[in-house]
Amino acid sequence: MSTPALATEPIPARPPTLSTMRTPAAPDRSRIRVLVIEDDATIGRHLETGLHSNGYAPTWSRTGASGLAEAAHTPYDALLLDLGLPDMDGLDVARTLRIRCPDLLIIILTARTDDIDVIAGLDAGADDYLVKPFSLTVLLARLRAHLRRHTITPAPQPVLRLDDLMVDTTARHCSLHGEEVQLRPKEFELLVLLGRHIGEAVSRETLMAEVWDENWFGSTKTLDVTMAGLRHRLASAAEASDRPCRVPRITTLRGHGYRLESRS
User: How many whole angstroms from its chain centre is CA 206?
Assistant: First the structure.
């Protein structure tokens, strides 16, 4: 892989000083382990330096195999994953670690920009993606935002009934006539947020702030891709059911956001 890294803040010839890499008033994150799987020496070195300077405990692996081996014997909180690895496709790494480590935060770092590549990465188990070249400060902001949400313990909430869907927000379980509907974490959170406001218009800004983070620093394309995945999974579950069923409709409101509509 030969793609250079961080464009809006280009990688300097020498590692940045701590003053340029450190975010203001960064809390102690020394117990937050971050695995970096990246074969490019320049990118890997600066990710390792930047993470360490901001209080994280990074480990850098240059191949998919070494990264998988590292994750097998050390528990990690987050993974920064390149797709263009020399020994295997990064998507296979994401799929494997999503199964092994269901709670692992996975952020893909990729030069692949087509929608189909983004969808493939998210379907492989990634929580987010960042297109190269990228800004280190944006990457760190996204990492902080995701980790905040990962560490928050949600208060118990009632079960939502959305037509024939049952959504247990405490158990994070969605079912249709008793059969589980497999949803990715962000898809589930979108469904819950829309379900709590069924019949109401919910803006893109609200969805991004509540499901991702109020300090989100990226394109809202992530929202569109995740919403498309949610629609597809709900439709597939309805088609696969051996009983007549109704699932709510997700309507796109151009220039505003989305609305969940009951079919009853």
Answer: 17
